[in-house]
Description:
Chain A is α/β, with parallel strands linked by helices. Chain A contains 13 helices and ten strands. Chain A is globular, with a radius of gyration of 20 Å. In chain B, strand 1 (about 1-5) and strand 2 form a beta hairpin.
Amino acid sequence: MRCRKCKGKAVLDVPRHHTAFCKACLTEFVCAQVERAISEERMFTKADRVLVAVSGGKDSLSLLDILGKLGYQADAFYVDLGIGEYSRQSKAKVERYTSARGISLHVHELKEDEGAGINDLADLVHRPTCSVCGTLKRYHFNRTAVEKGYSVLATGHNLDDEAARLLGNVLHWQTEYLEKQGPTLPDSVEGFAKKVKPLYRLAEREIAAYAVVNKIDYIVEECPNAQGAKMLLYKDILNRLESESPGTKQAFYWGFLTRQKTDEQARPSMAEHDRAVLRPCVTCGQPTTSEICSYCKLMARAQKNGPTPVGS
Amino acid sequence: MKVLLNHPLREVEVKGPRRVREVLQELNLLPESVLVVRGDDLVTEDELLKDEDRIEIRPVISGG
Lengths: 312, 64
Ligand SMILES: [Zn+2]
Ligand SMILES: [Zn+2]
């Protein structure tokens, strides 16, 4: 197979765009898609300081890499969940990547600050590990971005992640979640960081190929907690459809975004809605819809049930 | 050829010569869900693999 752009030897076929790329043209394609996402969705500019939430996986490390290539000011933030060997390895990959390139890295240690790793915390509050993990990560991503003075928080969510999440939300008609599924969420209230997903135009396979071609050493292994078995099922179903008719995933998710934009003109904006319902948590001050935020509720419950004091 | 698979990590033997596309079919894998790596390089579906080749099939789908 030949590269459609330069006729060199292709390393990846991209059926949804009826094309194939060599190494150099693949990197160019990926960077151009990210640049387009950033400008079309008004994510940030070169004057902004961006905090990238990294896990050691292909998406977040590639995102950091791409933003560096494009000349944005991006630092990294890693939450150490304390999941044995998996956390040790992923943290080592993040440290190696950032130190080799002189990128600032902020680390939050669950075992130090919450007093226990994610598995113990989930046991203490009797909730599924992945849901506790989600609450903790969302909380610390936002808090760290705001406290350390970053204007935007970026995550490595890609087209497959967003299409799978959309499928799940539509299957269960979780309309309240649908509103928050855009690639840019505003910093509507004090204490709320702007959140963006610059990889939403790229398929998971294209990003993995970018990582391999650019020799990014990422963790291939899955989280042992098998984060979201449902998500894997939705992704597999979407990829079956994609194999039969290339372009299905992007038609599904991007089509949803187009509809959402048309609807927005008729409804109050998300920022207005947020300002109406969010207020500071009485315990920690982070924005929440109830009196006490879900993080503080979780930690209070862990403390009550814990054999030893947990949290700070 | 030797085929290295992930999740869980294991190695299987597939008779060559064979196109990448055929190897994926034989292993019942969706092309959209994997990358095929030989040495340091990615190979496309039409690549002919020799019996003495060693490849890694890397999953690209994560649960995150
Ligand atoms: Zn090319
Ligand atoms: Zn709170």
